[in-house]
Amino acid sequence: MSTEPKRPRYWWESFSPDAARAGAELAVLRRGIGKEAGSVPEMWRFHRASLDSYEADTGLPSARLRAEHTALTLFAVHQQSQRKSMHQEKTGLGQALRRLRQSDKYKSNPETLDTRVNVLATSFDVAELAHHLRGLTTLLRGIQQPLDYTRLYYDVLGWHSPEGQDRARRRWGAQYYDWADAKPQPRTSA
């Protein structure tokens, strides 16, 4: 029997763009852009990540709350004016950005997007990461390219440690440059 707590079902996982209140809910979430996690009372009902009693008692924003706040606000930006959900399981950030790179918008000059992705990957902290992600999710919205917001939540959560940043960078790089499908290069003798 597993003692691991059950993972919450995040708001974006059950979002329906056809729901009567979808536009109003997304507008509420966009009000949180650039604000400290937990500081926008209208957003409280959308949070699903649990807090331990110390975090709840002190009111200090936890890493989980910051990561979920970031994912919620990015999803709201990405989903704006879209008819289908921009959350799609198993479509990692690097994979979604690779599809953007292959789109007509960047096909003739992919280096422009490469530069933006490199700036994102070298973000110092979660606030800087969220800033760069916001611009990139707007570009993804432009080509109607969804991504896995649950995976993004965990990537942002991991951004609170150097090891987590490294794991996210490697995953994004592998997806962006499609290393999994790369053919091994023949070895040359020197």
Automatic annotation (TrEMBL):
Gene3D superfamilies: CRISPR-associated protein Cse2
Protein name as it appears in the record: Type I-E CRISPR-associated protein Cse2/CasB
